[in-house]
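Ticket opened by: R.M.
Priority: normal
Category: complex prediction / small molecule

The reporter submitted a protein together with 3-hydroxybutanoyl-coenzyme A and asked that the result be attached to this ticket for the collaborator who will pick it up next week. Submitted input follows.
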Amino acid sequence: MAANGRTELEVGADGVAVITICNPPVNSLSIDAAVLNFVRRDLYDPRLGLLGYGFVGNFLYSLKESYEEALRRSDVKAIVVTGKGGKFSGGFDISSFGGVQGGQTMQPKVGYIAIDILTDTVEAATKPSVAAIDGLALGGGLEVAMACHARIATPMAQLGLPELQLGIIPGFGGTQRLPRLVGLTKSLEMMLLSKPIKGGEADELGLVDALVSPNDLVNTARQWALDIYELRRPWIKSLYKTDKLEPLGEAREILKFARAQAQKQAANLHHPLVCIDVVEEGIVAGPRAGLWKEATAFQDLLFSDTCKSLVHVFFSQRATSKIPGATDLGLMPRKISKVAILGGGLMGSGIATAMILSNYPVILKEVNEKFLNAGIDRIKANLQSRVRKGKMTDERYEKAMSLVTGVLDYEHFKDVDLAVIENVKLKQQIFSDLEKYCPSHCILATNTSTIDLNLIGEKTKSQDRIVGAHFFSPAHVMPLLEIVRTQRTSPQVVVDLLDVGKKIKKTPIVVGNCTGFAVNRMFFPYTQSALFYIDLGMDVYKIDRACTKFGMPMGPFRLADLVGFGVAVATGMQYLENFPERVYKSMLLPLMMEDSRAGEATQKGFYKYEGKRKATPDPEIMKYIEKSRSMAGVTPDPELLKLSEKDIVEMVFFPVINEACRVLDEGIAVKASDLDIASIFGMGFPPYRGGVMYWADSIGANYIHGKLEEWTNRYGGFFKPCSYLAERAAKGIPLSAPAKKVQARL
Ligand SMILES: C[C@H](O)CC(=O)SCCNC(=O)CCNC(=O)[C@H](O)C(C)(C)COP(=O)(O)OP(=O)(O)OC[C@H]1O[C@@H](n2cnc3c(N)ncnc32)[C@H](O)[C@@H]1OP(=O)(O)O
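Result attached by the on-call engineer:
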């Protein structure tokens, strides 16, 4: 049995050596710090990595060793590379990035893996090798497979180079081999969008050579390798293929277009452009030059802030489902076979759509025929929009719709496992009805962003199975799910809902019960502070521009237009009731609403909307702003007109950080990284800045605290830093450090 991150080598009577990648759970290609520590310090340069020769890591060294053995042995004619447990490989071990970035783990010398191991050992081998791909072949995993002389995959295999989502580029030759196997346009799409493809598409494109069932995979690959050995099939080195590459002139046009697209999509990101440059180098100067450029660029990007932030996001996203007191108790999620949704409004129908898309049978209950039909029609419309966009076949549409049953009574509720209550009046009554009609294990979930879960359950004996499931609109599209637990919600129910969340492809975060929970609590100051600055004399469009340049999908005013002023005012009222000391009572939205100017839905808000969703600044808003300013009795501050975009971003986001600190301090969120994920998936905070708390720590609690203090003195209590922030600023402790660590340091 191999140790973690090693390869197993087994030679069959047919003369085929099968090299198996073994590193559960995803067979990542590991670099083992312990092994690297044996390398002599004098052969190590922190920027260039290993200058001399030595062990370069568990898996990769082991792969080279296995190859060398297979090449040496006279009983081996050909080689098959595969992965253990139905997965080829999820790529380079991301958990080792931190060690390399922090200097604890040495990295191999530039080009060692891509050139010495994959090109000069695997691809240049005198015996042919075939990759047998089931499950995942991502990043470095696919790069190993592309260095083999053929690839056999299963239809459900996922193949891709998603490195850019981590702020790096493919570093094991992927930028050179993928374009040569699938053409420039498709390869750029796969890399720039970090989008894997399934086995079927890979077969059509020529990325794999044959598609077989998982049971036939290794045997087919063995035979294929022998066929190459006996010259019955071509022996192809993908690095030197040219037939799929577009002619140079055309290639240059494709690269130019890709650069423009990359800049349009994320102007703050540098690494997509580096990726395009590296691809171009290979096309213009030849693939070996491309490999060298790739290797140096990869090592530089590994140390970038973008990479560090995105790796933080990767692990934080996975950590949201690790909940102390729930997921560490050894509880297994129970099987949810049927879901009931009460209320087919916008949210209810969106939730139903998300459920049926993941094959959960759904009962949709409404109070009358008219509402029920409207709810079913909304679900149909959600799915039809997917069909129109080519994301769903007609057959899949019919199958999904067949999972929905519309009802007007509780007759069908006796075998329901999960009941989700949408925004229906008399929730208390409904919960007590559900208690009567549903089986005693059924989870009772309510979708709400405000309601007090303790109150809802007051008339039932089922407080332990009451939980909040806060979806974001549109529920079948938005990726976040806030799971709200009260003091009495059972850990089993939390574990069950985390599992459902994962199955319906949402990123769940578990939060405590309070007005606004975590996401809306953080979101509120985003628009609040912006409204305040308008009364103080700032320009609406300048604020929006600064926020979008920072990386937000839209600024606070464009967002208010999208959400609608009615919702914004209603939310403001709830905050006023619960947190009066930090609500700014702006009159701007009510004034605009008096003239039926209530956001995008009314074609006019802070912007004018003529074409579909096209927002144009509207000078008319000045008359409302002037009125609002005079009603507020605030004197505009000429200093604010001089602010740079960086200053504006700080003024908008530091109150958000302040609120995030309160959320953490009150125990509403379990850990700071959950708030990072909540800000990215719930607010659209740029992931390459790592999330709101990670970004805050990159700036420093002390600086943020100082600014908030300064603004409190100048403009009032709205900015007052909370005690959590003040304490950490004073003691120099990161905002994201866990509470017990703080205590340990106090
Ligand atoms: C030089 C090279 O070009 C550079 C590279 O290869 S960079 C790496 C490229 N590969 C990737 O980006 C793939 C990243 N992984 C994923 O997208 C997904 O994890 C996956 C599709 C592989 C599996 O998804 P899923 O089945 O939902 O499981 P998921 O919960 O994400 O992962 C399972 C565990 O494997 C870990 N994991 C997944 N991929 C990993 C990787 N490449 N390295 C280290 N750990 C990894 C996860 O952190 C998680 O650990 P946990 O159970 O302790 O939380």
